[in-house]
Amino acid sequence: MFRVLIIFFILNFYNPVFSSTKEKIISQMQLTNNLSFNFIQTIDNKNENGKCIIEYPKKIWCEYDNSNKKIIVSNGKSLVIKTANKGSYYRYPLNKTPLVFLLDKKYLISKMNILIPREIDNKYLNFTFFENNIEINTFFDKKNLSLIGWQTEDIYQNLAITFISSVKINQKIDNKIFILPTID
């Protein structure tokens, strides 16, 4: 009987209910294979919005709700920014952008494991880390512990703040969306 009580105590001690908030966020991230969400992005006091899908590791597809019909796509190696109306097409190595870190959940988890989250306005939890002279901030909702956004510099060294909403986790997605668009 004593052994049963000890085993029960040990199992309950490691129950997620008793885990720290940071451990719960990390656990939730470990279970996440993809995210679908709406976003509002602010760069140089200019707001853009749209919808995105992230598939870990390092894939993203975003469609902006603007007259430029801008899309952003990463296949895990390259990042393409394309606007249909302006006819612009830019291709970058993903590892030259801050997205390489934000799209890599193993990297994010490794950083969160060594950091202590900062509480903001009793609503949000923030992890700040530095990589290659780039400051990266990730924000989580304090109540449901879900990712709600990030802040970093874009490829032109402008402050980029992205807030996400209507997040859906582990949805069935068509991987064809991560095929890089071509020049028309």
Quaternary structure state of the chains depicted:
single chain
- The global form is globular
Beta strand count: 11
Q: Largest sheet, described in full?
A: 11 strands, antiparallel
Helix content: 10-25%
Query: What is the H/E order?
Result: HHEEEEEEHHEEEEE
Strand content: 35-45%
Low-confidence spans: 1-18
Number of helices: 4
Calculate the mean pLDDT score and round it: 87
**Radius of gyration over all CA atoms, rounded:** 19 Å
How many angstroms does the end-to-end distance come to? 73 Å
Structural class: alpha+beta
Strand order of the largest sheet: 6-5-4-3-2-1-11-10-9-8-7
Task: Provide structural commentary.
The protein has 184 residues and is α+β, with helices and mostly antiparallel strands. The chain is 20% helix and 44% strand. It has four helices and eleven strands; from the N terminus they run ααββββββααβββββ. It has helices at 2-13, 21-30, 99-102, 105-114; strands at residues 34-43, 46-55, 59-64, 70-75, 78-83, 88-93, 118-120, 124-131, 134-141, 147-153, 159-169. It has an eleven-stranded antiparallel β-sheet, with no helix packed on it. Strand 8 (124-131) and strand 9 (134-141) form a beta hairpin. Helix 2 runs antiparallel to helix 4. Mean pLDDT is 87; it is low at 1-18.
Fold blueprint:
Elements: H1 2-13, H2 21-30, E1 34-43, E2 46-55, E3 59-64, E4 70-75, E5 78-83, E6 88-93, H3 99-102, H4 105-114, E7 118-120, E8 124-131, E9 134-141, E10 147-153, E11 159-169
Antiparallel strand pairs: 1-2, 1-11, 2-3, 3-4, 4-5, 5-6, 7-8, 8-9, 9-10, 10-11
